[in-house]
Amino acid sequence: MLECNHAGATRRRALTAVLLAVLIMSSLVGASAGAPAGVWADRVDRGRFLIFIGDDQVGVEDFELTATRARSTVEIAAGGATSRAQIDMALAPQTGAQSYRLEAPGVVLTVAFEAGIAKLDVQGTSRQVKMGVPHVVLENNVFSHYQVLLGMYDASRGGVQSFTALVPGVMASVPVTVEVLGPARSTPIPLTEYKAVLAGAIGVSVLVDDAGRVMHVAVPGQNARAVREEYQRTVDDAKSSASVVPVGSAEPAQPATAAAPGCFDQAIVVDSGENVRLAGTLTLPSAGLDQGARYPAVLLISGSGPQDRDGNTPPSYMTNI
């Protein structure tokens, strides 16, 4: 845990807030040593991810991947404004990420990787972070980096594999595990599902096609997902075909299941001002709220990741609460 005085902590937290604000407008990796830097070691892949929060599309990521480079342009629309960020990550066959650069209005962040150390610089503030090998950079809304992740995963060994990822928004490295789950269910074309877990807390589902290309990335804890544009068209076509069926041929709707034994789910929406609506789900005891009993509860804040009540994200900026 990093210790600092109050003034230093305030400055770092302010810097982190600026970074996160930019980057959220604007993902995990590792593998055995010697693995190629990305599944596209002998070809170029270009495409677009459509970025969703819930059912609402909020942005796009246009990307290009080669054996030595991962470039992206991310545009996110929120609150009536559009933010644009350009990301460039250089790759090396044995080490993974060799350098990283993000440019957004008013912010330039650079990272150089040298001898197990990531050297970060943003707005004249520098920091060094220990890294494993190979390594990559993970940040909000840069979904093409999951292609690099899967290219480094040792499929011949299989199972759960552990890696390290750099998160520039909090200037820290975090552990990552990756495993292949097998064929995905309920998809219009055959896909394979991978599961990644960041910092032991944030689960990510990654679906790839038969050619190994990432088609769909979902972060359920943040209610966020990215869908490759061509795959979204396939999904939409499948939905249209399914909606045109003979009368009486559709399966009857299944009743909703309880969230857990003795509990039920209740959706809530809170207006937070400035045209912002916060939506969530309460899982409550079936006895209801008016029985006078108290129960322990866990509050999950979507889109923010693991943090304390002051907005600090471990392991970098912790304060006593």
Structure report:
The protein is mainly beta. The strands form 2 sheets. Strands 8-7-6-5-4-3-2-1-15-14-13-12-11-10-9 form a 15-stranded mixed beta sheet. Strands 16-17 form a two-stranded antiparallel sheet. The radius of gyration is 21 Å and the shape is globular. It has a domain at 6-173. The chain has 3 helices and 17 strands.
- In DSSP terms (H or I, runs of 4 or more residues), the helix count works out at 3
Q: Ends: how far apart?
A: 14 Å
Structural Rg: 21 Å
Q: For the largest beta sheet, what order do the strands appear in spatially?
A: 8-7-6-5-4-3-2-1-15-14-13-12-11-10-9
Structural class designation: mainly beta
* Strands, total number: 17
Strand content is 35-45%
The succession of helices and strands, N to C, reads HEEEEEEEEEHEEEEEEHEE
Q: Helical content, roughly?
A: 10-25%
> What summary fits the major beta sheet?
15 strands, mixed
Overall body shape? globular
Return the average pLDDT rounded to an integer.
76
Poorly predicted regions: 1-41, 245-258, 314-321
TL;DR?
By secondary structure, the protein is mainly β. The protein has helices at residues 6-25, 145-152, 229-243; strands spanning 45-53, 56-65, 69-78, 81-92, 96-104, 107-114, 117-122, 125-130, 136-137, 161-167, 172-183, 192-198, 202-208, 214-219, 224-228, 263-271, 277-285.
Properties at a glance:
disordered C terminus, 17 strands, 3 helices, mainly beta, 321 residues, two-stranded antiparallel ribbon, disordered N terminus, 15-stranded mixed beta sheet
